[in-house]
Fold this protein.
Amino acid sequence: MDVYLPIANLSVNGLVIVGLGALTGLLSGMFGVGGGFLTTPLLIFYGVPPTVAAASAASQVTGASVSGAFAHARRGGIDYHIGAVLVAGGVIGTGLGSLLFRLLQALGQIDTVINILYVLLLGGIGGLMAHESMTALRAQKAGIPVPARKRRHHPLVASLPLRWRFYRSGLYISPLAPLLLGMATGILTMLMGIGGGFILVPAMLYILGMGVNVVVGTSLFQILFVTMATTMMHALTTRAVDIVLAVLLLVGSVTGAQVGAQFAQKAKPEQLRLILAVIVLLVALRMALGLGYRPDEIYTVVPL
């Protein structure tokens, strides 16, 4: 079933795109992370231009995060106070990311920068996840209990001025910390089309010191609004959002997420993290190899 993507300016098999969306939705449901960090690389592998892949993946993440945010809101799993600060930082970061995106696009380096960012981020985070998971599995096999992580914010956060109380998270920290964290994820969302959850959740745990019971919900709350702002910014400035591509991805991801959630109930968390780490590292390796490949067409003509 061939479908024409007007912004990407190419024809694709619609069932393949739906399948890619289902795959990322499956991973999202199994591992509790947004699929944006895998959607963009998979689209690039399929032949979609990186700029269109990143912009369209952001709009897909918006739709996919709505149901998750509502589910966590119903059980009180969102700290709206710190979430609002994160959203404010994310919107500012989106604006800065838009300027950077347009600058790199004008220099003709945006595709290369997107690929390099994915290699660095996926490689680093995948390596840390793999190390943590293997340590936990070895400790389980040896019968040694893994010591519980002490909930504490980073010393750099403690040194920032203007402390506020975030009662739902049980924190007394400077609002500058979540604001800067939101800005960083906003910039990355604009450049890479990711939801930012696979960066935001560890940062909220290990840097801000937030409780596990509100981390995922607050992350989805921030992702929902920041990806909305990112989609609007892309539509108004870069004009790289392909709505046909986004709809096909969303159809697949909604179905895949339901199936993934059922699989997640039957596996151990340590095994799931290790599987996810391997997938992330394989994607990073494939993108690293792609940076060294000589393309079939060295020069391409892009319509203005």
Q: What stands out?
A: The mean pLDDT is 75.
